[in-house]
Amino acid sequence: MADLASRITDPNAPKAEEQPAGNEPSKPTGETQLDDAHDSGPGLVESNYDVEVKLSDLQNDQESPLYSVSTFEQLGLSKEINDGLLAMNYKKPSKIQEKALPLMLANPPRNMIAQSQSGTGKTGAFVLTILSRIDFSKPQQPQALVLAPSRELARQIQSVIQSIGQFCKDLIVEAAVPGAVSRETGVKASAVVGTPGTVMDLIRRRQFDVSQLKVLVIDEADNMLDLQGLGEQCVRVKTMLPKNIQILLFSATFPEKVMVYAERFAPNAHQMKLRQQELTVKGISQMYMDCPDERSKYDILCKLYGLMTIGSSVIFVKTRESANEIQRRMEADGHKVSVLHGAYEGMNRDALLDDFRSGRSKVLITTNVLARGIDVSSVSMVINYDIPMKGIGDKEPDPETYLHRIGRTGRFGRVGVSISFVHDRKSFQALSDIANVYGIDLIQLSPDDWDLTEKKVQDVIKSSRAKPEYAPTAVRV
Ligand code: ADP
Ligand code: MG
């Protein structure tokens, strides 16, 4: 990267980056009930390319965040829940599941702030808690609420609750996202998963009875509690809930600044935190492409298309406009790519993500709206077409968003590649800063030696098994 460092160009920054906060219209529209038949289902679905994941090896490796000493049976879950886990082929808990569950299930209930790397089963951890706390004799009475930053993540979590809870008779799970809750009936479910704006509207309109809620989960909690974004809405929702509700905060990242709010939001919580250097998932090979200038990025992206379609790929860009523009050009050049961002109408977004999950579309261009939480196991490549930035005028690099974006690959022991494009001094510096934050050694790719680039990427994507050497993860309780 040294040659790049000496290059000074004018970055001519485009418009402000899309934030998930801006994606949700304040008023839900439409009356349609959510169609949830969208998922190939969570769990270890083997992708159609040649990757054999030896999960059992990873789960026996003490250094892995997937390591555990116990079985799900030892966690004292109900028979119905255990049957659900079996059906999903969850054989052993991951570290976060094993460590956090006994604390979250204990009585009297206590709050929890839990951090664990991307793709290590945080959803399972809180879903098992939710299912263990629901009284199934009151299926239409809301008893658990999960808040998530995007429509897509809310629907995904809804589907995980339904999958693990498939043998819990009378379980009803509803998504509180724009257009999903019927105005006539309101929320009639034991577990509710929503985005904060819609949930707030439903409670205010008295369409969501929160009086018997026992558990509140905030997924992607650092993002959700950030006062620059969704924080205010989450705090407002919380003030409308029962005072003794158990609060569970989950994320792969908890920057110090947000931690202060988190501790206030979930007082007296058990805490499981990781050190900064433990955050990266070693199954993800992090690379960067040294592009000669901004304009060349597009041609390089097109050259990568063949590699992108070995598995599935997500391309992250800064703005909706550039997402649209790249799709238009790529399609004109004969490539098949989809776009998903906040300007699309809800049902359209659902259909687009369904297509991507099922493999009908394999390359998805998106903004930060999908940076967090989305779990599609076949994703083997993530491209940062633009380095994630934050702050006024996009002055600072955004290490958290970087980590979440690349975490769309390398799920639960799988391998994956991330390629970050740098093209000038600003982007180079931003990526170097991010690498320093996490202590990452980035692998350089050169657009001048295409054979070598292809080899480096293919070696990872087609490698026959996951690399077990995760960053050490001494979870501190
Ligand atoms: P995180 O929220 O930590 O990023 P997820 O909860 O989305 O990760 O889980 C990532 C993937 O791992 C999902 O596909 C999920 O079904 C799978 N998974 C979670 N727990 C287990 C387990 N104990 N055994 C096998 N697969 C699991
Ligand atoms: Mg998650």
Give your account of this protein's structure.
By secondary structure, the protein is of the alpha/beta class. The chain folds into 2 domains: 4-37 and 279-474, Rossmann fold (3-Layer(aba) Sandwich), CATH 3.40.50; 52-274, P-loop containing nucleotide triphosphate hydrolases (Rossmann fold, 3-Layer(aba) Sandwich). Helices cover 34% and strands 14% of the residues. It contains 17 helices and 16 strands. Strands 3-4-2-5-6-1-7 form a 7-stranded parallel sheet, sandwiched between helices. A 7-stranded parallel sheet has the order 10-11-9-12-15-8-16, with helices on both faces. A two-stranded antiparallel ribbon has the order 13-14. Strand 13 (389-390) and strand 14 form a beta hairpin. Helix 4 packs parallel to helix 5 (122-133), helix 5 crosses helix 6 and helix 7 runs parallel beside helix 9. The longest helix has 14 residues, at 151-164. It is globular, with a radius of gyration of 21 Å. The model is unreliable at 1-53 and 464-477 (pLDDT under 50). Bound molecules: adenosine-5'-diphosphate and magnesium ion.
